[in-house]
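HUMAN: Quick job: go over this next protein and say how the chain folds.
***
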Amino acid sequence: MPNKDELIQEWISMFGDLPEEWREGLPSRRATEDFKSERVTLCDWLHETYFDDDKKQYFSKADIDTLGTLLQLLMQYRPSDRPRASDLLNHTWFQRNPFTI
């Protein structure tokens, strides 16, 4: 089970640096930089998770990439940095239905 510092490092790796006001009490900047060199992006994780075994796959790698970009937009630390719902409806994920291809 990861500890708090390891979880914070994973968040930083997937979603970028924390807002400045949240950085107090974090592991040293050097430790953060070292961890970033082993960065696993959200899209990497989605690919690894979705395409990891012999289960039937409904989505293509391009679909998973598109989903990754959508989730990345939604997973901003500050709510004010997240897109509005009306903006999200214009995202590629919602503009086409991968089940009809």
Q: What stands out?
A: Residues 41-101 form one domain.
